[in-house]
Amino acid sequence: MDPLISPLALALERQVGYPPRLVDTIGHPVMWFGRLISFCETRLNTPDRSADQRRLAGIVALGLLLLSVLIVTVGIRTVLSWIPLGWLVEMLVATAFLAQKELGRAVGAVAEGLRASLAAGREAVSHVVGRDPETLDEAGVARAAIETLAESTSDGVVAPWFFLLLFGLPGIALYKAVNTADSMIGHRNDRYRDYGWAAAKLDDVLNWIPARLSAVLITAACFFVPGASPGKAWAIARSDAPRHDSPNAGWPEAAFAGALGFQLGGPRAYAGEMVDLPAFGDGKASLTPSDIMLALLLYRRTLDVLLGVSAFVALIMLVS
After folding, report:
1. What is one term from the GO cellular component aspect held by the record (predicted)?
2. Total number of domains constituting the chain
């Protein structure tokens, strides 16, 4: 793989994103993954199956998804290797699996909506979180947006980049397929507890390093954000992240909380059911649209640090 693919993909996607016209014309790779996941789930995750049968069916479905993605992406990469400057096309395709621009836009829209009214803020945040927006007050909407921004910094940007760096287009596509499967079927309810077991476990494994790397990058970004505390970012990440049920989700969220002096996490409602989650940090809890904008500044500086790291790694690979 050409070492320039990962930094150029980061730089390009951050500025351009995934063109809306492409979404309207051919859809998005995550949408394609979702259709295959749904197709398998409706046929394999049937009520008449036992728990063990559902778990086996989920493993088979995940295997089919990953095999399909691997065959397509390796095929694309092989064809591109025969073409002069084919690595540039691989870089362009890889940008589809990054979410820098859209994540920043969606979270920024929550701040704009919340400044207009609570109802507008709830509507905007409903597009980026799975919890019940109707139960949220202004502070709850702001907190939900910042928590999503923090967690998605890891699984929407850092983790895809990490696997692009290691394995090129097949790596980033396979990671995104697993992450999409986890978001769709990796839930701990009666329907998905067994069927989505494999997707949830594999997602945990793949995100172990990127989640902790994200906390490091967020900590480093604090040096470029007025008022942010790198010391507290890392201290809160180390002390509070292990309290989360997920082995990974707490790391970027706790780092954001410590960096900005916020309190994030805590109980939240999903489909009318309250879920008791740990709180991260002991700072400001009554968050506002201005706090969302501060979190977005930290997010942008984190992307800057990531791009710098990616460029440095590319330079080392080029001269070695």
Report:
1. plasma membrane
2. 1
